[in-house]
Amino acid sequence: MAKYSSLLFFFFLLLNCLQNIHASPEYSRPHPRPVILTGHNRPESEPEQVHISLVGKDHMRVTWITSDKHAKSIVEYGTSPGKYHSSSVTGERTSYRYFFYSSGEIHHVTIGPLEPNTTYYYRCGGSGPEFSFKTPPSTFPIEFAVAGDLGQTEWTASTLQHIGAKDYDLLLLPGDLSYADTQQPLWDSFGRLVEPYASKRPWMVTQGNHEIEIFPIIYPHGFKAYNSRWLMPYQESSSTSNLYYSFNVAGCHVVMLGSYTDFDADSYQYTWLQADLAKVDRVKTPWIFALIHAPWYNSNAAHKGEGESMRRSMEEVLYKARVDAVFSGHVHAYERFTRVYNNKADPCGPIYVTIGDGGNREGLAMMFEKPSPSISVFREASFGHGRLKVYNKTHAHWSWHRNNDNNSVMADELWLQSFASSKSCFPETSQQESTTQKDEL
Ligand SMILES: [Fe+2]
Question: Which Pfam families would you find in this protein's record (predicted)?
Fold first, then answer.
């Protein structure tokens, strides 16, 4: 393992050097930082890579990995440390092979019903350390942390530290998690790196290109590691694929879309998306947010046009449903657009935000188009993360927090008014709303 780690380290070092050679002379942004390889620091038999995700209204899926093939798939939990009051649930397990790599046992156990806004203490597999998480509230306010293209570098660690330093309710990740890119031990390393955060708050993720891991003939469908390790509540939202799903939390409907599965008008994903959005009750969930990996709007030279065919297929569906905001990753920079539809500013279109700046090993996407298109409001190539605090059914606050070296500094912010309270864009549900204020969209 040590030999493998040092080989990997030198490979990434070389990659970083090559990238720096191509940087422009006026380059002043932070360089990529080295990959962190995180080992299993507990006894081999104990659970590792613990993370949680929402399932339905009041359940939580607990996922962890053991090298012990006979370890039990049980979670004991309760509201006081060490007291589980015989609350114990048995779940399921899976494992996978990828060429010569065999994963550990991947345990998925869904616990609940759980009370909202409540801290639970839990233990996985009947042994090992106790963890705790807090369930999201059932009503406003609720705060999402948003971070894409995380990877597992020193920048990732910095971003995670900033995310964890201020309370939030759940994390949304618009794709590109581990940057394992077929090197399966890097999935394990990533699971260990994020465990201190992902075991405390639900992580709701969708896939990026670095999750694909297709190998012709042998693994033609890809996503073997991603689907095994990061199981999301797709069945609960009537989806047939872990690559796209939706969930409700505290008055928000969140749609997680798949940039790397079919999205044409005759695809399952398209049909599912239409049906999913048609079911949204805007009185119960006034806000709708969507996440994709490859941005539909992007004024950076990096990945230019890669989201275009998906935009052409699905933009109208989101627009007609009056989706409030769309978050994407892929481009390693931050960019916020105004309300847009079909490439033009439109007061009834979603705001589009690219937040692919979590800290991956590939570095920042420095080359923005000049001049900036009129629909692009703020753009900057720096590492960081976003916060979406939804205060009530009418107003939410979006902010972007740049990693200034090791400090987190809010560099962009915006007040949003919900479409559900907009008389002009959503007349059906907006009878008595609302005051309008400056600096909001
Ligand atoms: Fe990507």
Answer: Metallophos, Metallophos_C, Pur_ac_phosph_N
